[in-house]
Design brief:
single chain; alpha/beta; D-Maltodextrin-Binding Protein, domain 2; Alpha-Beta Plaits; six-stranded mixed beta sheet; 15 strands; 29% helix
């Protein structure tokens, strides 16, 4: 049975995304951190790791992106998972005063939280927050997580669909020691840091433009090792094994301090 690691507790959205990508007949391994989920895959304890990288409402999952920067694994797939948040607890809706959940989930349900003037307690994981409130066992305390998490820990669903926007998706990346083969409908993810020279970033972007390569995402993140320096995360259409893409990446590398190809993989459908 295929082993797949993820950050969080059983019932987390990452686990649900893994089951959507691989099918339900898998062995999922919960980990305390994104780094741990990647590390045990690097060590050969399991075949794949699944990490969330961005949400359509709240944006990038920063801790996940930082962990990806340091891994030797390759992205071999992506999955879009529709997020439907539930209020989970033992009390009635009018009893609840405090909610526990991951900061991303709290942000995605901010309208509901503000309307009801609820106190918030950030936690490491959505499903983990259900585990916490089960231990607290207080009718005034609830968690925000998936319906699956409520069922798993046998805690009632107080209210479904409390997210600000029903068009709420999280994008997950699938990591492996292996590379994926070209399908002609691929995306490549890279990380790079630019030289401190006028026009360095412009020159990199110009390489993609001049070769008619479509960028689907570009974002900067602080370099954790050097103050006020930034890494750029870029997704673009095409596969790194393609001769045209290889030539562009060779040219891009000349304008960077470092360049890392995270992986090339089939483009997922948003469904």
């Amino acid at each position: 049975m295929t082993k797949i690691s993820f950050q969080g507790e059983h019932g987390a959205y990452s686990e649900s995304a893994a089951k959507k990508f691989f099918g339900k007949d898998i062995n999922t391994i919960p980990c305390n951190s994104f780094e741990d989920a990647l590390k045990i895959t690097e060590n050969g304890e399991n075949e794949y790791a699944v990490l969330p990288v961005e949400n359509s409402i709240e944006g990038t999952v920063g801790q996940s992106i930082d962990a990806i920067t340091n891994t030797n694994l390759h992205v071999i797939g992506e999955e879009y998972f529709k997020v439907e948040h539930c209020l989970i607890g033992t009390g009635k809706l009018e009893d609840i005063q405090t909610v526990y959940s991951h900061p991303q989930a709290l942000g995605q349900c901010s309208d509901f939280i503000q309307d009801r003037e609820l106190k918030t307690v950030p936690t490491y994981d959505t499903a983990g927050s259900v585990k916490i409130i089960k231990e607290i066992n207080d009718i005034h305390t609830a968690a925000i997580a998936s319906n699956d998490a409520g069922e798993l820990y046998n805690i009632p669903i107080v209210k479904q669909g409390i997210e600000n926007n029903p068009n709420n998706y999280t994008r997950f990346l699938i990591f492996s020691k292996e590379n994926s083969t070209e399908t002609k409908n691929d995306k490549t993810s890279i990380i790079f840091s630019v030289k401190h020279e006028p026009g360095a970033l412009h020159n990199i972007l110009k390489e993609f433009n001049d070769n008619d390569i479509n960028l689907t995402k570009i974002e900067s993140r602080p370099n954790k090792n050097t103050n006020w320096e930034y890494n750029f995360f870029v997704d673009f259409q095409g596969h790194s094994s393609n001769s045209k893409i290889k030539a562009v990446l060779d040219s891009v590398k000349k304008n960077t301090i470092f360049l890392k190809v995270i992986g090339s993989y089939p483009i997922a459908d948003l469904d």
